[in-house]
């Protein structure tokens, strides 16, 4: 989780605060407000157990938030800057003469929304958004690698099948050539047989006409 | 008579010249020192206003003009003092006049020293503060004193200045530490992004290798299919020729059967007769 507590104050006077959980953050925040005297601009962070209190004071207005130690510093201070701008834009000069908790009733809702935004929305930080986008690109590329590997497997199967088909067509061609040769030889044999039969018939007819097997009358 | 006349003429002329030259430079030096005193007092009052809410660009401009004015006065008075000193050395004057000139020189030195002190203080404060600050950045503050007691207040003001400088350095150190922490965290995020980009680069390279290998596979598939197509075409032509030969075989077989039939018929007819 990110930012758990937020507070806006002037000097040691609390103007608005919001707490996301039931902790003693409010008491510690007041101690911090009293422990940081003066009116100069500053950025400081105090650590307490597992939580860090980030304090930013600009133009006499103090914005404070409590975040866990995994949130770092960039997001909490971006949150403080955003809250400070919203507060000054909303209340303007009234900040310097306001009563304690004078803005708490309506500004605590804005504090809650911004705490939620900066805690869970990755778009709150450009680096986090870019990190998320790079993660998405990496995931998409990993999926692409898987798909290309599947395609490779199927291409290997296709290579095997086309190799088989090539072998089969070579064998088919060889058998077709052998079949053609067989049929041709049978044709040759039938032709020879036909010629022999015709010669025999001619001989028999001549034998009858010439009155003898040795053909004495014709020669 | 001529000797007395010459001697009487020279002392008279010399005495009158001495009287005129001696009085004018001394009085001029005294007047100059008085003016410098007045200007330095004004300058110190302006310097005491630096670092207070009254510190404005107009005040800075006035301070600058006053400094230039004092410089000019110092130059003029120094020239006149030198002139008076030359006259003292050249002519015979009484001791009271020499003592008066020496006193004027001493006063002039004192005024110069005071001016230098005020100038140094002004330089320090001009660098320490800026005009029209919206609020007091440094926690230490002091009120401007109109009483001209610069020499008495100088140690106190110097101590306050050192304290202000130390506070400012602490403040800047805090700001530097904060900015360094932010920069380090941002660098860490950018390092992670760089690492992810490196991984995506590796993935793209692997993808290129796989696609190239599969290109070779597809080439093999293409050549296999082309070879199969050619072999099938040749087999088809061979089968066509075989079909034509087989049709000729059928014709020859029929012809042979017909001839055998006729021969058999003739033999039967001859035997029957």
From TrEMBL, chain A:
Keyword Protein transport: yes
GO CC term (a single one): vacuolar membrane
Transmembrane segments: 187-209
Ranges of residues in domain Longin: 7-111
Subcellular localization(s) per the UniProt record: Prevacuolar compartment membrane; Vacuole membrane
V-SNARE coiled-coil homology domain sequence ranges: 126-186
Record's keyword terms, sorted: Coiled coil, Membrane, Protein transport, Transmembrane, Transmembrane helix, Transport, Vacuole
Family affiliation: Belongs to the synaptobrevin family.
Function, as annotated: Involved in the targeting and/or fusion of transport vesicles to their target membrane.
Name of this protein: Vesicle-associated membrane protein 713 isoform A
Organism in which the protein naturally occurs: Glycine soja
UniProtKB/TrEMBL annotation, chain B:
Gene3D superfamilies: 1.20.5.110, 1.20.58.70
Region feature Disordered, mapped onto this chain: 1-23
Domain of life of the native organism: Eukaryota
Span of domain T-SNARE coiled-coil homology: 180-242
Keyword field: Acetylation, Coiled coil, Membrane, Protein transport, Transmembrane, Transmembrane helix, Transport
Cleaved signal peptide residues: none
Transmembrane stretches, start-end: 252-272
Pfam families the UniProt entry points to: SNARE, Syntaxin_2
Subcellular localization(s) per the UniProt record: Prevacuolar compartment membrane
Gene Ontology molecular function terms on file: SNAP receptor activity; SNARE binding
Name of the featured protein: t-SNARE coiled-coil homology domain-containing protein
Gene source species: Glycine max
């Amino acid at each position: 989780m990110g930012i758990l507590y937020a507070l806006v104050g002037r000097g040691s006077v609390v103007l608005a605060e919001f707490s996301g959980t039931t902790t003693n953050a409010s008491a510690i925040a007041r101690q911090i407000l009293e422990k940081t005297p003066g009116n100069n601009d500053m950025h400081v962070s105090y650590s307490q157990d597992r939580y860090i209190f980030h304090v930013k004071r600009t133009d006499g207005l103090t914005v404070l938030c409590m975040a866990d130690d995994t949130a770092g510093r960039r997001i909490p201070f971006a949150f403080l800057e955003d809250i400070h701008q919203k507060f000054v834009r909303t209340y303007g000069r009234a900040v310097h003469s306001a009563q304690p908790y004078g803005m708490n009733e309506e500004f605590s809702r804005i504090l809650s929304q911004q705490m939620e935004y900066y805690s869970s929305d990755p778009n709150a930080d450009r680096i986090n958004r870019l990190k998320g986008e790079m993660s998405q690109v990496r995931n998409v590329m990993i999926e692409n690698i898987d798909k290309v590997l599947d395609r490779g497997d199927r291409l290997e199967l296709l290579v095997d099948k086309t190799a088989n088909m090539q072998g089969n067509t070579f064998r088919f061609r060889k058998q077709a050539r052998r079949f053609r040769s067989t049929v041709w030889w049978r044709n040759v044999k039938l032709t020879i047989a036909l010629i022999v039969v015709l010669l025999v018939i001619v001989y028999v007819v001549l034998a009858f006409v010439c009155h003898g097997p040795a053909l004495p009358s014709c020669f | 008579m001529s000797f007395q006349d010459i001697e009487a003429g020279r002392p008279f002329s010399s005495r009158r010249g001495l009287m005129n030259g001696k009085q004018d430079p001394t009085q001029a030096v005294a007047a100059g020192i008085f003016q410098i005193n007045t200007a330095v007092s004004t300058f110190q009052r302006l310097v005491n206003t630096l670092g207070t809410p009254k510190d404005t660009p107009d005040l800075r401009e006035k301070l600058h003009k006053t400094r230039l004015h004092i410089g000019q006065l110092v130059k003029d008075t120094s020239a006149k003092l030198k002139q008076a000193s030359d006259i003292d050395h050249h002519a015979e004057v009484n001791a009271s006049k020499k003592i008066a000139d020496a006193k004027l020189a001493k006063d002039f030195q004192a005024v110069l020293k005071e001016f230098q002190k005020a100038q140094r203080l002004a330089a320090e404060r001009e660098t320490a503060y800026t005009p029209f600050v919206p609020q007091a950045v440094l926690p230490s503050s002091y009120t401007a004193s109109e009483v001209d007691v610069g020499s008495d207040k100088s140690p106190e003001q110097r101590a306050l200045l050192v304290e202000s400088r130390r506070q400012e350095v602490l403040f800047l150190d805090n700001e530097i530490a904060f900015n360094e922490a932010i920069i380090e965290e941002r660098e860490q995020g950018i390092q992670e992004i760089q690492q992810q980009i490196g991984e995506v680069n590796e993935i793209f390279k692997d993808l290129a290798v796989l696609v190239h290998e599969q290109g070779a596979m597809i080439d093999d598939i293409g050549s296999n299919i082309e070879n199969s197509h050619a072999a099938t075409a040749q087999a088809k032509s061979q089968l066509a020729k075989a079909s034509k030969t087989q049709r000729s075989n059928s014709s020859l077989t029929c012809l042979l059967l017909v001839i055998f039939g006729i021969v058999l018929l003739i033999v039967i007819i001859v035997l029957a007769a």
